[in-house]
């Protein structure tokens, strides 16, 4: 992608962030206020976020060479007509987003009017929270007919995940009908080539895991995974008990629970019990730092693509799962040390 800037922008102060499966980007400076970005696509398209001062804009780029001209005005990062790229939230040059925006404008206005004069503390009010859920659901579902209209465009797939599924599931995860609607839309209404991608399979697994989570007295999901050191491990072992601890470094209760797992590791023989931590951090460095600082010595898996979380239907951290001969015999959300210890004493001592 070629980026041209005028004298309103210091090109050395621009920053770039690439997402959605794109491998690292090389930045080539050139004369005449021009920057060239190169890299190898790992997906059909990827998003490029360009930041300057406090402003930012996001583009969707594919395999074709693309170009954009930037200028800074009124504390905002502006651009001319893009070539072979889409500004993802542009109602002028991006016809897909223009149609989505216009079609669901009444729902967007209702949402904005509802939150006018309110703040995040109002989420603690159950009635307001339920109204907010309904408004978010209306906005999300209103986008689907337009996405179906452009079902063969990567932008529709990108928007479905990043602007419909990802933001809405956090508050609508227990709305089974809504989740099933999203799952069916992905399976039936978007181009099948998107479902075959790594991202498509991840979304499908996430939605399916919510609809059909692994439950007590059912078989544990059979997953081929590696620990943080690259060793193959099984979460469906048959020769010993397996205790899974879903956690993250940013989760206060998870950190508070670490001494409990350290004590379990000392109390129960290794030939009878395996403890496996399933880490849900946003990046591996946070996971590794906490493992070192807290002296965590049991097996750890970095669940980068959320495959394990989705397969087990994990919505809360920490969550503990106990498996016996491939069958889930216990599952608990939050800190639950006394019940877990009592169950392990009954099974192992």
Task: Characterise this structure.
With 349 residues, the chain is α+β, with helices and mostly antiparallel strands. It folds into three domains: 2-93, no CATH class; 96-211, no CATH class; 224-348, Glutaredoxin. It has eleven helices and 16 strands. It has helices at 95-103, 105-115, 126-149, 154-172, 176-188, 192-195, 198-211, 252-267, 284-293, 307-312, 337-348, and strands spanning 2-5, 15-19, 26-30, 34-38, 46-52, 55-61, 67-73, 76-79, 85-87, 224-226, 232-234, 241-247, 273-279, 299-302, 319-324, 327-333. The strands form four sheets. It has a five-stranded mixed β-sheet, with no helix packed on it. The chain has a five-stranded mixed β-sheet with strand order 14-13-12-15-16, with helices on one face. Strands 2-5-6-9 form a four-stranded antiparallel β-sheet, with no helix packed on it. The radius of gyration is 24 Å and the shape is globular.
């Amino acid at each position: 992608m070629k980026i041209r800037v005028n004298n309103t922008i210091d090109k050395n102060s621009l920053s770039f962030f690439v997402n959605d499966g794109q491998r690292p980007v090389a930045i080539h400076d050139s004369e005449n206020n021009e920057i060239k970005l190169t890299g190898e696509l790992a997906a059909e398209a990827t998003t490029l976020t360009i930041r300057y001062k406090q402003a930012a804009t996001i583009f969707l780029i594919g395999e074709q060479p693309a170009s954009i001209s930037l200028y800074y005005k009124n504390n905002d990062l502006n651009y001319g007509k893009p070539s072979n790229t889409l500004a993802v939230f542009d109602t002028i040059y991006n016809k897909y987003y223009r149609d989505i925006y216009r079609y669901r404008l009444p729902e967007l206005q209702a949402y904005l009017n509802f939150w006018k004069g309110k703040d995040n503390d109002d989420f603690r009010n159950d009635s307001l929270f339920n109204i907010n859920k309904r408004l978010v659901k209306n906005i999300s579902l209103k986008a689907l007919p337009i996405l179906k209209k452009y079902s063969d465009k990567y932008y529709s797939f990108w928007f479905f995940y990043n602007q419909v599924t990802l933001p809405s599931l956090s508050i609508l995860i227990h709305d089974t009908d809504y989740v099933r609607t999203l799952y069916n839309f992905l399976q039936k209404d978007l181009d099948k080539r998107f479902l075959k991608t790594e991202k498509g399979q991840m979304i499908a697994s996430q939605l399916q895991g919510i609809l059909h989570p692994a439950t007590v007295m059912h078989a544990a999901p059979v997953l081929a995974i590696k620990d943080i050191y690259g060793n193959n491990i099984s979460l469906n072992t048959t020769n010993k008990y397996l205790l899974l601890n879903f956690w993250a470094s940013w989760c206060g209760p998870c950190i508070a629970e670490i001494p409990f797992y350290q004590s379990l590791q000392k109390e129960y023989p290794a030939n009878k019990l395996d403890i496996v931590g399933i880490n849900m951090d946003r990046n591996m460095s946070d996971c590794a730092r906490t493992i070192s600082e807290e002296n965590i010595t049991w097996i750890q898996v970095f669940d980068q693509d959320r495959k394990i979380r989705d397969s087990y239907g994990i919505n809360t951290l920490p969550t503990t799962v106990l498996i016996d001969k491939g069958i889930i015999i216990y599952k608990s959300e939050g800190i639950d040390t006394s019940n877990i210890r009592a169950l392990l004493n009954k099974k192992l001592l």
